[in-house]
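Question:
Write out your own:
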Amino acid sequence: MLKRLLCGLAACCLLFALAPAGAKADTVRIDDLTDGVPTVQVLTAGGVDVTASRVIIHSDSAPEFLHFQIFSIVALPAADYTDLFEDFLGGTLSDRFLLVVPAGPIRGNPFFDVFFASDPAQLSNAGALNSGLNAVETGSFQLVLDFGGDQYFVRSDAPGDRTEVPGPATLTLLGIGTLTLVGSRAWRRRKAIADATRPTSAGDV
């Protein structure tokens, strides 16, 4: 572990030394528009994919939940989170992004822990600071954090993309309506049969 930290620190210092003044941050994209585990991609300002060299996906990742470590410029311990809502700010909480920089032996740990959960109950924000970037989901990549020389974006479902599940009251009304329609048709069928088999009176001839 110490060897990995030292190697990461050396590489990070090299990147920092070579980066020109005013250089643009790398982009970290978390995509939840998938059928399985959300994906992550890291792109440089020039569009080069450096995901393989900067990201380690953890085994606890699962559908709707992503946990990975990202190698970045050394920073002091920190914890920041951003919430995404379905309808309006402060409304129905849909997704949560959390970045944690654990304490390390050398003024912080260059390997940040990053979490994303479509079920916010899976991800506690206790002790973390809000980024001030809370937003309503749009279905496109949205900035959720600018930290450690990187900009983090999340793409998740837009409100209109969700399939609404009927509630119990709706299902009850639907069932009553269906039974009423079936009963009405059965009554009309019996009436038609009765009219067709009724004896014809002499006055009708």
Q: What stands out?
A: The first helix runs from residue 2 to 18. The helical segments are 2-18, 51-54, 168-197. DSSP finds three helices and eleven strands in the chain. Residues 1-23 have pLDDT under 50 and may be disordered.
